[in-house]
Task: structure prediction
Amino acid sequence: MDSNDLYEEVLTQAAAQARRYLRTIRERHAGVLPEAVKGLSALGGPLPAQGENSLAILELLDNAGSPATVASMGGRFFGGVIGGALPASVAAHWLADAWDQNACLYDISPVAAHLEDVVLSWILDLLGLPPNCGGAFVTGTQMADVTALAAARSSVLRNVGWDVERDGLFSAPPVTVIVGEEVHATMLKALALLGFGKGRVHIVPADSQGRMEPSHLPRVSGPAIVCVQAGNVNTGACDPVGEICDIAHEMGAWVHVDGAFGLWAAVSHHRKHLVEGFAQADSWATDAHKWLNVPQDSGIAIAGGCEILNDVVLNQVLVSFGADEVNTRVIDAVQAEGTCWCGGTVWRGRKAMRISVSSWATTDLDVSRSVAAILKIAADQSSSSVTFARTSAEGQIDSRDRIREVSN
Ligand SMILES: *Cc1c(COP(=O)(O)O)cnc(C)c1O
Result:
């Protein structure tokens, strides 16, 4: 078989498998059944002595792998801010795989370099950032944080006469790093990778929604970096970025915004007040694989009873069905039942269900089916939950309008 025939054969089969997967995604269990996890043992075993037939590999991947995926491409997966992928972005991703470009230099892949320039300028335009900002496409927000914070590190040290690229960090003047109490775990990872150490950061207390309290920002002198957050992963709340920028810039600090999904509030007329002043910061990290619904991995660094526990301002809803044990039971039962998938979290010491609405595929029907399933399960698990769960229904619908507003 020549390579044309081989491509014809494998791409046709992969397309058929992908189409079947996507056609049935809305009706299947939203999570992963225990049998599917057991079925994963079909993958692996001893390293095969020789290569296998391409079609057989695809068959095995589909049979064993597809059932062990969560239905994040359906409309009722609300676990984590994961998003779906728009049809055009899935198809474009296939084409890009066929190109298989190494985008290291303009001459090695002019199309990749050109698209990078176009998309970056569009993002600056969308977010209202200065057109002369530099930017890079990386794997996700964590790497965008690493990239932007590396620029921050160079800049604040250069200001005191230290060239970190040439002389490294040993014996460098200390850099004060300030984060909010509700900092995302990946931001601490980014700081650790850059040699700042997660244990030596200065932590600023947060309010009841998880927003950093600007009045508690320490006044420091010397090289300093303040990391703010747009979009708390539990509540969706955003740090008061503008206010923090004013204080931080007065003391000569660099302000970096971790805006994985929350930064996109800036493109909605009704939500942009949440991130007011964010353009005054010095660097921003975000991604396109959450709220912009493009395939993973797509991060962007720009250098330059039941009770709703949070104020639902963006796309995140925290629901409590009562005591911690009740919440654990309800979340486990919702995940096992499979109509929708919601995760658990601990917010201010209380166990809660976390509903993250971040996929274009979520319809009104998905919301009502999910709410009905959660209500029924909550009623089975605790008699007092029904009136509370009604509030959660409104929270979800409300939050869905917001995602539509931002995505459209
Ligand atoms: C998701 C998230 C991250 C990490 O993003 P990845 O793209 O998964 O690396 C960082 N910060 C916040 C606030 C997030 O929500």
